[in-house]
Amino acid sequence: MNDKFISLISGVIFGIGLVISGMTNPEKVIGFLSIAHNWDASLIFVMGGGILTAGPFLFLLKNKETSALGNQINLPKKQKLDSKTIIGASLFGVGWGLVGLCPGPAIAAIATLDPIAFVFLISMAAGVLAKKNIVK
Amino acid sequence: MHNFTPVSALIGGVIIGLSVVLYFYSTGRLAGISGIFENAITSTSQKASNLLFLIGLVVGPVIIYYLIMPNKPISFEITNSYLLIIPGGFLVGFGTRLGGGCTSGHGICGIGRLSVNSMIATSIFVTTGVITVFILQQLGIYL
């Protein structure tokens, strides 16, 4: 049981959860963001299920210094809300609304072998690299 | 709400939560997908582990689509307009990294840890997403 194996297994479980939740279908995510017309509230249940499952464990484990595999635990520090978080979240929401894909489902979408999924993923990688080079 | 599927959504969400727990308990890292993606393509530290997580993220759906339910058509309805796909992908990549997280990092891990910043970030990206979809609907691009 090493770090690489656990990472792979965690990814597989996450991907299966995404498919079962229905969030691998962009149409369903657009339905959630479409509050004015034919709203589909399912995404709230996905996030709620994830938060209620992970939250108590993360709380219990929050003061641990090393993980089960012996890695140093570095949780994000409490910090003041800054303009980067606000602007970044705003831009992410616009991109999310344009297509209905956020990073997890965008990567999982490769399993469909739809060429559009590959174009989205390459564009997303370009955005990540642009941020890395523009904003220090 | 004829498309509303709360039971499968909740089960899927719990499975995602279990993945977050397994990953954090074992590796000490939070399963925020945009961060894992950034590290996989730009960082040298934990590169193999990050790449393997992303490969798993594809393998999971492959198992369901092609092994468990091979006769069920894959539900993947997406716009075919590259005028939406390319800017959309770019903004998701740029915005999640500038904002420090996505639906999993802020929405599930952050809110799960009761981080106020993550609650605010999640409220913001859901709001701008709703506004974007509303505008596209007014333009007749989405129904």
SSE order of chain A, one letter for each helix or strand: HHHHHH
Overall average residue pLDDT of chain A: 95
> Spans of chain A with pLDDT under 50 lasting ≥5 residues?
none
Secondary-structure-based class of chain A equals mainly alpha
Work out the number of β strands of chain B.
0
Helix content of chain B: over 70%
For the sheet with most strands of chain B, the description reads: none
Low-confidence stretches of chain B: none
Could you estimate the helical fraction of the residues of chain A in percent? 55-70%
Distance between the termini of chain A: 36 Å
The assembly state of the depicted protein chains is heterodimer
The portion of residues forming beta strands of chain B comes to: under 5%
The number of distinct β-strands of chain A equals 0
| Number of contiguous helices of chain B | 6
Quickly give the structural class of chain B. mainly alpha
Structure description:
- The complex is a heterodimer of chains A (136) and B (143).
- Chain A contains six helices and no strands.
- Chain A is mainly α and 136 residues long.
- Chain B has a domain of 66 residues.
- Chain B has 143 residues and is mainly alpha-helical.
- In chain B, α2 crosses α3 and α5 runs antiparallel to α6.
Chain-wise SSE layout:
The complex is a heterodimer of chains A (136) and B (143).
Chain A: H1 3-21, H2 26-33, H3 42-60, H4 83-99, H5 103-108, H6 115-134
Chain B: H1 6-27, H2 33-42, H3 47-68, H4 82-98, H5 103-112, H6 116-138
Helix pairs in contact in B: 2-3, 5-6
For this entry, give a set of tags.
heterodimer, A: about 140 residues, mainly alpha, 6 helices, B: about 140 residues, globular
Question: Briefly, what is this?
Answer:
The complex is a heterodimer of chains A (136) and B (143). Chain A has helices spanning 3-21, 26-33, 42-60, 83-99, 103-108, 115-134.
